[in-house]
Amino acid sequence: MQASHILVIGAASVDVKGRAAKPLQLGTSVPGDITLTFGGVARNVAENLARLGHPTILISAVGDDAFGAQILKRTGDAGVDVSRVIVQPGQHSAVYLIILDERGSRAFAVDEMAPVMRLVTAEYILSHRSLFQDAAMVLLDANLSPRALSAAIRTARRYGVPVAVDPTSTTLAPRVKRHLSGLFLLRPNLSEAAVLCGHPIEGRAAAMEAAQKLVTRGVGTAIITLAEEGLCYATSSQRGYIPAIRCEVADSTGGGDALTAAVLYGLVHGFPIDEAVRLGVSAATLTLRCTETVCQDMSLERLYDQLVI
User: Fold this and answer.
1) φ and ψ at 228, to 5 degrees?
2) How many domains does the chain have?
């Protein structure tokens, strides 16, 4: 694959994070830290790709508000082409509210992505079909409406461009089910994989079986992340397990998106799948150590510094 741009389509948001300093208690508050940063699965993947040095174009939508302006500035300053991001007057930008426990793991989350993401229509995507024609890869998140998701996948296939999909959440993963056949890459976590496979998945062995099952349904490469246990991956000819790199977690948000970006980077640049997923684990680890959703000093050199052998 040539190292032309990667086209990323999906959500861009402001992330409001509260991390508890002691165990959470229902019905009352506990002391902790509250921060505001920038997120959205597609935006996070795009920023990580740009910080790794790959040309990246983002299609998304924000409101014509202060948050939208900050999202565009942060993402553009990282090197992402944000010229095709819709800026809609009278619409507020997407917000992701997350509560982290004292270990930095997600306890609760609420997102308001759908209102602004409705602006990324099938028609808008089709009007930018020239971006597909020249792309090395297309990455989609499931915040896209079912119709927009279908349009993006059809357009990519029309031009012979590989499609990678992040199912995003257990709520949104059902949108991906009908598109499994022909996907170049699918990167669910354990609970999202359970939705896609139609049954509970518990443990590493079951995750490996699930990855292989997704491949039999037409996915080229299935990567199932297992949080602190690492990941399982499968293709038609390979399967493997990569352990997580043990580290102190500052914030679990964005680790999966960094992993996705590094894997895509590796595959677009011709790395074998086993090396690409190791880069992904390294990227996730860097991100888990950061309080930001995207690690600001993400680079290929830093990934190799702690690569899992």
Assistant:
1) -70, -5
2) 1
Residue 166 in tokens: 């992040």
Q: Show pLDDT as tens, one digit a residue, over the chain (309 residues).
A: 345 999 999 999 999 999 999 999 999 999 999 999 999 999 999 999 999 999 999 999 999 999 999 999 999 999 999 999 999 999 999 999 999 999 888 899 999 999 999 999 999 999 999 999 999 999 999 999 999 999 999 999 999 999 999 999 999 999 999 999 999 999 999 999 999 999 999 999 999 999 999 999 999 999 999 988 999 999 999 999 999 888 888 777 899 999 999 999 999 999 999 999 999 999 999 999 988 889 999 998 998 887 755
Range of the domain at 109: 6-305
**120 close to 142: Cβ distance less than 8 angstroms:** no
In a domain? residue 38: yes
Is there a domain that residue 68 lies in?
yes
Q: Where are the alpha helices (DSSP H) in 95-224?
A: 114-117, 122-126, 129-133, 146-158, 190-197, 204-216
289 domain-assigned = yes
How many Å separate Cα 196 from the centre of its chain?
Answer: 17
Instruction: DSSP for 244-273, please give it.
Output: PPP---S--TTHHHHHHHHHHHHHHTT--H
- Establish if 1 belongs to a structural domain: no
Residue 86: CATH number of its domain = 3.40.1190.20
